[in-house]
Write a structure and sequence with these properties.
The protein is mainly alpha-helical and 179 residues long. It is 72% helix and 0% strand. Helix 2 runs antiparallel to helix 6 and helix 4 runs antiparallel to helix 5.
Length: 179
C-alpha cells in the first residue's frame, strides 16, 4: 500500500496531535514553559552586554563600529518599529499566562511581525552562549504557541464573560497560578 506525501503528512500531524492530547499539559506546566522562554530570551539578549569578553575583542570592536555608523534616522525607524513590537510581545505573553482568548492569535501575529523585521536590524554579533540561549528561548516559544492550538490547554483559551476577565486579572487570583 502506497501513501502519497500529503497522506503521510496528515498521518504524522494527527499522530502528533494525539500525542499532545494524551500528554497532560497542565496550566502550571504551560506557564513554566512560557516563563522559561521569556527568561532565556532576556538572558540571551543581555549576556553579551553583561559579559563582552565572550566575544573576541576584534569582533567586538568591529560590532561597535557598525553600531556607531547607524544614522539617527535609521535608529528612530528601528525604535518606532521595535518598541510597539516589544509591547505587543509583552501583552501577548501576559495574555497567554492568564489564558485570555485573544492571546494565542496575538502571539502568532507578533511572532510573524518580529520575523519580518529581522532584516531591518542589519548585522548582529552574538557569542555562542547568547545564541544558544536565544535559540532555546525561540524553541520554547514555539512549543508554547503549538500547545495553545494543539493540546488540551487550548480549552483554557475559550471565550469568557467579561466579569471573569476582571476576576482573572486580580492579584488574588495570581497568587494561585497552579490551577
Amino acid at each position: 500500500w502506497k501513501r502519497t506525501l500529503s497522506e503521510s503528512n496528515i498521518l504524522v500531524w494527527s499522530s502528533f496531535s494525539i500525542f499532545l492530547e494524551i500528554m497532560n499539559i497542565t496550566p502550571l506546566l504551560f506557564r513554566k514553559l512560557l516563563l522559561l522562554s521569556i527568561i532565556f530570551a532576556v538572558i540571551g539578549g543581555l549576556l553579551d552586554i553583561m559579559l563582552p569578553n565572550l566575544v573576541p575583542d576584534p569582533l567586538y570592536q568591529a560590532q561597535q563600529e557598525v553600531d556607531q555608523s547607524v544614522s539617527s534616522n535609521e535608529f528612530m525607524v528601528l525604535l518606532l518599529i521595535g518598541i510597539p513590537l516589544i509591547i505587543v510581545y509583552i501583552v501577548s505573553s501576559v495574555g497567554l499566562f492568564y489564558f485570555l482568548p485573544w492571546a494565542p492569535r496575538l502571539a502568532i501575529i507578533s511572532t510573524l511581525l518580529l520575523f519580518v523585521t529581522y532584516p531591518l536590524l542589519g548585522y548582529s554579533l552574538s557569542s555562542g552562549w547568547a545564541l544558544a540561549l536565544t535559540d532555546f528561548s525561540t524553541m520554547l516559544w514555539g512549543v508554547v504557541l503549538t500547545l495553545t492550538y494543539c493540546s488540551s490547554i487550548r480549552k483554557r483559551f475559550a471565550r469568557r464573560r467579561s466579569w471573569m476577565l476582571a476576576w482573572q486579572l486580580s492579584p488574588l487570583w495570581a497568587m494561585n497560578i497552579d490551577k
